[in-house]
Amino acid sequence: MSDDRIGQRAAELLPEEQAAGSADPRAQAEAILEESDEREHDPNAAPDSFLERRHSEQTVDPGETTR
Fold first, then answer.
1. Do residues 27 and 9 make contact, with C-beta atoms less than 8 angstroms apart?
2. Average pLDDT estimate for 44-53
3. In Å, how far are 30, 41, 49 from 13, measured between CA atoms?
4. pLDDT above 70 for 48
5. HEC states along the chain?
6. Fewer CB within 10 Å, N or C, the chain?
7. Are 59 and 65 in contact (CB under 8 A)?
8. Does pTM top 0.70 for this prediction?
9. Mean pLDDT over residues 47-52, rounded?
């Protein structure tokens, strides 16, 4: 993980992340990015979340309706 990526994420903490407060925003950003990278590489890493990946041919046409 690059220092630039960590620095950018630390500078752009979400409002709820800022509200939680941190004595070290860079360390907070690094932890957020590590968890994000882990979830990206292993969708089952976050058991309470669901990541759905579809290809364009698996989507519904805008004119179709589902029931």
1. no
2. 66
3. 11, 22, 21
4. no
5. CCHHHHHHHHHCCCHHHHHHCCCCHHHHHHHHHHHHHHHHHCHHHCCCCCCCCCCHHHCCCCCCCCC
6. C
7. no
8. no
9. 65
